[in-house]
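Side project, low priority. Logging it here so it doesn't get lost.
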Amino acid sequence: MSDAQTTVRLLPWSTPEGKPCFLAGDGTGYVSRVADTVESVQLGMADDLLGHATDMLSDSKLSAGELRFLATELTAALRDTRRVAVSRGARLAAAGRGPEYQGDDAFAGG
C-alpha cells in the first residue's frame, strides 16, 4: 500500500465546453507532469506579454484595434495565471502548507 496522498488538482486547461478539468492522484504521474509544463509555459507567456504590453502602452500612437487586441490577450493571460494560482493554492492547502481552500466556481463558465 502506498503512502502517497490522493489529491484533486485543477488542471491548466478546460474542456471544449469551457468547463474546468481536474485530476485526482498523487501528483507524480504523467498528466501531472504535463500540467506542470503547461503551467510553466502559460506563466512564461504571461510574463512575455506583460513586457510587450509595457512597450506597446508607451506608444502614444496606439490604435483602438491594437489596444483591444492587447486587452484581449492580457485577459486570456490573466485568466490562465489565475487558474494556475488557484490550482497551486488548493494543492498547498491540501498539503497543510497554505490557507484552507474554500472552492472556486469561477471556472464553471470557462
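Brief comment: The radius of gyration is 17 Å.
Revisit when time allows.
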